[in-house]
Amino acid sequence: MKLLIIEDDAAAAAYLEKAFREVGHMADLAANGLDGYALASDGGYDVVVVDRMLPKMDGLSLIHALREQKIETPILILSALGQVDDRVKGLRAGADDYLAKPYAFSELLARVEVLARRRGTASSTEETSYQIGGLELNRLSHRVTRDGQEIELQPREFRLLEYLMRHGGQVVTRTMLLENVWDYHFDPQTNVIDVHISRLRSKIDKGFETPLLHTVRGAGYSIRDSAR
Amino acid sequence: MTALGKLFRTTAFKLSMAYLVIFVLFASAILGYVAFNMRRLLDEQVSLTIEEDVKGLVTQFNSGGLRRLVAQIERRASQPGSSLYLVTTPTGETLAGNISGIDQEGLLDAGRYQLFYRVLEDGDVKPHRALVDTIVLPGGFRLLVGRDLSETDRFRRVIRSAIGWSILLVLVMAVAGGVFVARRVLGRIDAMTATTRSIMAGDFSGRLAVSGTNDELDRLAQNLNAMLDRIAELMAGLREVSDNIAHDLKTPLTRLRNSAEEALRTATDTEEYRLTLENVIDEADQLIRTFNALLMIARAESGNATEGMAAFDAADVARDVAELYEPLAEEAHVTMHLTLPEKLPLYGSRELIGQALANLLDNAIKYAAREESVSEKAEISIGAVATGTGIELSVSDNGPGIPEADRARVVERFVRLEGSRSRPGSGLGLSLASAVARLHGGTLRLEDHAPGLRVVLALPVKGIGL
Fold it and tell me: Do residue B278 and residue A218 have CB atoms under 8 angstroms apart?
């Protein structure tokens, strides 16, 4: 995966570049809005990570300009401005995701990977069913089976599993789940998501030999075929 | 001189001067009008009596001839009074009368005019003014009838001086009044200025003097005092908040530092280091969370977080949040009851209302939860109703509740009551809910749920910029 990081704080940029390299992603750096815009205009990146407050051209204007040019590279805003309305402004400008500083790298990584995958699948039409291991989820009939065995899920559990399976093999964080399954962006303070996950886990993994729903320490959850 | 100059520049002085000029003008006009009319009345009276006299005398002459007229004149002239009579021959020789010292000697012209004649008064000869009527009788005789005007002249002088004096008096009193009022107002404003200056200099306990007359200056002083009280209150609140923030952030920072230090001192293998670092990150995350909550409260309180506002269904949000916390409640053996209407439209921030409800629910579960051995079951209920003017979202629990005396206090930032310090939490949940309520133009009410606590988020439906 090839990333563009537009960040004026050299230390933060270097940290990100190194951290992404360690997990096998290439990252180019731009220290101001104009350079970032020039690089991003080529469209050769999988994901662009943009700070909001940048010299020469601010993050929101940059995103605006790129979207005007029909450059659809997924963009994630990384900003110290983390209030609800800041987020609204960012997404309205054309960004695909918004992460407030300070952030956990695992959170950023999970979000960037999801964004890159979305780009990879290109076509916006979503699949009608997902299949991982013996687990199958049909979006049209709202049925979930494992090894042919029917599993009863509550509507919210269904959406939770659907989101996890759409990003099968990838790590999804608790905040991503809260944002995408519940459509709230606040910090629930307590481990509410964990409780929902453990409920879901008891329904899809209990009684089966290989667990599919894994907890990724310090990051979140992942549905995949085999244990790492 | 400067004091006088200052006096001249005051609004009160200028105003009283303007009133003074207007008052004097009006007084003069009225007095002048009265004096003018009085004079005319007097003059008219004089000429009327003269005319009557002349008429009578002409009748006498017509019926009894010159002799009768002379006899009449002599009789009348001998009576005391201000009447003047004179009969002359066609050549001007006096036949009868009581005027002698007429300036104009010889033939008298016919008609009405004023003339001066001399009167012996206190051994002195003085000219007196008189109004006379002279007619030419058949045969060329002349008859003069007049009235001495010295009486009316004196009366006129009295009126004139009365007018003069009263205007002077009005002037003096108005100036004195103006100066008095101006000085009084000026004095009070100067006192106010001095007080505000001392407040600006740092003595915040100072308050403006209120005279008790409830005039406009008093009302201004009262309002300014109320404003100062409010500012003092806010400043105290701010100081307390920043003190609390400093204190409450120090505790987790100390923990964080301690665990890092302990790892350096005692850890022997990478696994131990790893555990410590994870612990440190958890502590840091908790700190970030606290900061985020503080920022959100500040943003909500400043009233600027209106960007994401839209119409949404509050009942839906309540259902969502309840559903989100339901497994947590179940895990804590807390039964959750929902009493929600189908729809409850509201304009505002869905996100913030959701967050506020989540905080309330989180609290309710935490405080309702109890040992399983306790016979009474832990229960919480979430309700929403439309009131006449808005909606009320409520979260009730049957936990220990909050004593009435503490209810106002727990809404403040970082306030945690005894007995709850041991439980997890930042002490910001209720503060945030309260700030969200205020942002929406509503209030957060804490009530007795007997037993337990009932928290009501009362929001007006048309609270903000619809």
Answer: yes
Which residue of A lies nearest to B319 if distances are taken between CA atoms? A182
Angle in degrees, 0-180, between the axes of helices B270-302 and B350-368, rounded to the nearest 10: 120
What ipTM was estimated for this complex? Answer: 0.80
A contact residues 69-98, partner B, Cβ 8 Å cutoff: 82-89
Residues of A in contact with B307 (CB under 8 A): 84-86, 88-89
| Closest partner CB to B289 (pick from A88, A182, A189) | A189
A199 touches B: beta carbon within 8 Å: yes
At the topology level, CATH places domain B207-300 in Helix Hairpins (1.10.287)
Residue ranges, CATH 3.30.565.10, chain B? 303-460
Residue type, A221: Y
The Cα of B351 is separated from the nearest Cα of chain A by a number of Å equal to: 6
**How many beta-carbon contacts under 8 Å exist across A and B?**
74
Side chain identity at residue B301, one-letter code: E
Cα B457 to Cα A56, A70, B208, B384, distances in angstroms:
45, 45, 39, 9
Q: Is A186 on the interface with B (CB under 8 A)?
A: yes
* Residues in a beta bridge with B380: B336, B397
DSSP B411: G
List domains and CATH numbers for chain A: 2-120 (3.40.50.2300), 129-223 (1.10.10.10)
H/E stretch holding A213: strand A213-216
pTM of the model: 0.63
Task: Give the separation between CA B419 and CA B435, rounded to whole angstroms.
Answer: 25
| Beta strands at A172-173 and A220-223: parallel, antiparallel or unpaired | antiparallel
Instruction: Note whether B328 contacts A186, CB cutoff 8 Å.
Output: no
Question: Could you read off the pLDDT of B297-314 as tens digits, one per residue?
Answer: 877 777 666 666 788 888
**Interface list for A 109-148 with B (CB within 8 A):** none
Per-residue pLDDT of B375-423, as tens digits, reads: 678 888 888 888 878 888 888 888 777 777 777 777 776 666 665 555 5
Question: Under a CB-based contact definition with an 8 Å cutoff, are residues B436 and B443 in contact?
Answer: no
Multiple choice CATH, B303-460, 3.30.565.10, 3.40.50.620, 3.40.50.720, 3.40.30.10:
3.30.565.10
CB B383 within 8 A of CB B339: yes
CATH fold of the domain at B2-157: Beta-Lactamase (3.30.450)
Q: Tell me: the pLDDT tens digits for A61-98? A: 888 888 888 888 889 999 888 777 788 888 888 889 99
Mutate to test the interface with B, among A158, A177, A195, A203 (most CBs of B within 10 A): A195
Look at residues A142, A63, A57 and name the one whose alpha carbon lies nearest to residue A97. Answer: A63
Question: What angle (nearest 5°) sits at the alpha carbon of residue A50, between those of residues A7 and A190?
Answer: 105
Contact A85 B307 (CB under 8 A): yes
| Interchain contact A185–B (C-beta under 8 A) | yes
